[in-house]
Specification:
The complex is a heterodimer of chains A (about 290) and B (about 130).
Chain A lengths: L1 E11 L2 E11 L4 E5 L6 H9 L6 E6 L2 E5 L4 E2 L7 E4 L11 H8 L7 H9 L15 H13 L5 E5 L7 H17 L3 E5 L3 H7 L2 E6 L2 E6 L1 H5 L8 E13 L2 E8 L2 E8 L11 E6 L11
Parallel strand pairs in A: 3-9, 3-10, 7-8, 8-9
Antiparallel strand pairs in A: 1-2, 1-4, 4-5, 5-6, 10-11, 12-13, 12-15, 13-14
Helix pairs in contact in A: 2-4, 4-5
Chain B lengths: L1 E13 L2 E8 L2 E7 L14 E6 L5 E4 L9 E12 L3 E8 L2 E8 H6 L7 E6 L5 E3 L1
Antiparallel strand pairs in B: 1-2, 1-4, 2-3, 4-10, 5-9, 6-7, 6-9, 7-8
Classes of the chains: A alpha/beta (about 290), B mainly beta (about 130).
């Protein structure tokens, strides 16, 4: 569990903003911070990373105190076990992929993880290439791998994929989910992209003028208003089969595969792997006792 | 999915169920939901609401036959019809806007449906979903 208490006054071009955040992140969870520009999202990440000082606050990761202003404790960024990925990749252009990863690796640490990350992020064929020779998507894969070389507990992603096109973004989302699971990371991401947020995260904190105004699930945030249907589930779209004027969607809800008939307009923009809300009135289902 | 906007005109509550009438233009649509004003804040007289029902739930009748139990009967004119192998897709122009219905192909043939036909579009009150 990461417990966060932040009080900080931020100066900006349009006046000052009081950042007042109190929340907890469950270990292993994937949370998105959502909000308009200037609501304090990036500042929150920078404070967690130890890159921005604050007036009053406390940050603990399980029993480790990273920051406690009342006791004058303030660990340096490198002591906090965090990984950070930004929108710009900030790689050393004249170093190779492998050199970039080695450079980021703390002294005396186990270098085996570099080979492991090169495998997971599919960088094997690129590892001896200078990073200036890579495409945007390849550079971001290296930047993600670099953020993980020191086995962080908390991974922070500040709009990491915003500069990439949609197909590349989907692919990198899969890489991020893979490493999130594999390394049992607690991940905090800033994003504005609804499909990305629904696909990646289980919780959204909406930041509004420096405070958390909503704490909810992605489906709750992006469902168009309240739907009265009493059968409401979120699941993953597995298959789309078109037939006449209707389409049969197979959706995995928990361990159960269900099929739903949808019309052309409903499936617009839907793709396999998307998370979807399934809602129905409660008048049709039948109930049978299972022996 | 068919979506029409209306305003709640009346609410009749019975235990956990509510029977609403929703005014869409001048037409009243009846909806039954497993919700009450206590469980859903948007169940208020005068509250704007969206009604949603799937194409497959819109029943098509020819002429002006009203002797059946379907609560919502809306007169209209058949605007277009497309045939597939199993289904036919029908668009009906009504006072509450265009409604789309998907019925079986053989029934479309049996009823000899064609553009300009006078049509009754019918929806059960328990098939309509609400969105605030």
């Amino acid at each position: 569990m990461i417990d966060i208490e932040i009080h900080k006054t931020l100066g900006s071009s349009v006046g000052s903003l009081k950042l007042q955040i109190e929340t907890s992140l469950v270990q292993g969870s994937f949370t998105t911070i959502f909000g308009v520009s200037g609501s304090g999202k990036t500042s929150m990440l920078r404070i967690l990373a130890g890159l921005l000082a604050l007036e009053k606050g406390k940050i603990t990761f399980n029993d480790n105190v990273w920051l406690d202003t009342s006791r004058n404790i303030n660990l340096k960024p490198q002591q906090r076990k965090i990984g950070f990925v930004f929108q710009d990749y900030a790689l050393f252009p004249n170093m190779t992929v492998r050199e970039n990863l080695l450079y980021a690796c703390a002294k005396n640490s186990d270098r085996k993880i570099i080979d492991e990350l090169i495998e997971i992020m599919e960088l094997r064929d690129l590892q001896n290439r200078k990073s200036e020779m890579l495409s945007g998507g390849q550079k971001q894969r290296v930047a993600i791998a670099r953020a993980l070389v020191n086995k962080p507990l908390l991974l922070m992603l500040d709009e990491p994929l915003a500069a990439l096109d949609i197909s590349l973004r989907r692919k990198l989302q899969d890489y991020l989910l893979e490493i999130h699971k594999q390394y049992k990371l607690t991940t905090l991401m800033v994003s504005h992209d609804a499909s990305e947020i629904i696909k990646m995260s289980e919780r959204v904190l909406v930041l509004d003028q420096g405070i958390i105004s909503k704490d909810l699930t992605p489906v709750e945030l992006f469902s168009s208003g309240e739907v009265s249907g009493k059968f409401k589930f979120s699941g993953e779209l597995i298959e789309i089969v078109k037939q006449d004027f209707v389409t049969i969607l197979s959706i995995l809800i928990g361990n159960d595969l269900i099929k739903v008939v949808a019309d052309e307009e409903e499936i617009e923009g839907l793709r396999i792997g998307d998370k979807v809300l399934v809602a129905s009135k409660a008048f049709n289902p039948i109930i049978k006792k299972i022996d | 999915m068919n979506k029409v906007e209306g305003k709640i005109k009346t609410i009749q509550v019975q235990a956990k169920l509510s029977l609403l009438t929703v005014e869409v233009d001048t037409i009243l649509i009846e909806v039954v939901v497993i919700d009450t004003p206590e469980t859903s804040t948007y169940l208020k007289v005068g509250c704007p609401i969206q009604l949603m029902f799937k194409e497959i739930e819109v029943i098509i009748g020819k002429g002006n036959e009203r002797s059946n139990s379907l609560e919502n009967k809306i007169n209209g004119t058949l605007k277009s019809i497309q045939h597939g192998d199993l289904f036919s897709k029908i668009i009906v122009a009504t006072a509450i806007g265009e409604l789309t219905s998907i019925i079986s192909f053989h029934m479309a043939i049996e009823l000899e449906l064609k553009p300009e036909d006078k049509i009754m579009a019918m929806i059960k009150s328990t098939d309509i979903m609400l969105s605030a």
